[in-house]
Amino acid sequence: MLLYDNAISGNCYKVRLLFSLLGIEYERREVSVIDRSNRAELLGDLNPGLRVPTLVLDDGRPLAESDAILVYFAEGTEYLPTDRYERAQALQWMFFEQYSHEPNIAVLRFWAHAEIKPDPREALAKFNGGLAALEAMERHLTGRDFFVGDRATVADIALYAYTHVADEGGFEIARFEAIGAWLERVRTLPGYVSI
User: 57, 106 in Cβ contact below 8 A?
Assistant: First the structure.
């Protein structure tokens, strides 16, 4: 398998983390998230969105979007619940991650890494959106070890990716006690790798 990847992208990291947890071997091809000038020729036949991560399976079929890749490879493993309701809950948190969490926290982090100076109003809106996402996570994790059931699932992997580096986008993660404890539990999973 070939993973079109970027070392600092949390969306790419999700895939690498799951692959490490499951012991899946793959090849990586680094793709810049700053210089997108060759995206059409590189990914155009594989991913209409021209985004990373993009994966090419051993049989040549492409698969895009980090959370879709997670679900595909978690099928039949402990990371994707078999219970219908718990599976729906995992998907609920993955949709939350892509709609409420990633567009705010990841974007602020990207701007910092790329040294982009956004309009202050836009930056404040992203910060407030990210803070609301973290507060929702904190409420949910209070009294729980993981997002769904009693063990880590694809929901935890999806949310961990940008949460554990949220400080790089200006968020004070240390003030979220339940999130901090959860981050530590994810770090102790057998096969864990850092971003």
Answer: no
Q: Specify the domain boundaries for CATH 1.20.1050.10 within the chain.
A: 84-187
Which of 71, 91, 95, 73 has its CA nearest to residue 148? 91
| Alpha carbon of residue 67 to chain centroid | 7
Give the C-alpha separation, 113 to 152, whole Å.
29
- 2-74: CATH number: 3.40.30.10
| pLDDT (average), residues 61-79 | 98
pLDDT of 189 above 90: yes
Structure-token pair, residue 125: 């809106």
> What is the arithmetic mean of pLDDT over 115-140?
97
Instruction: Give the pair of three-digit tokens for residue 119.
Output: 């309009």
CATH architecture label of 84-187:
Up-down Bundle (1.20)
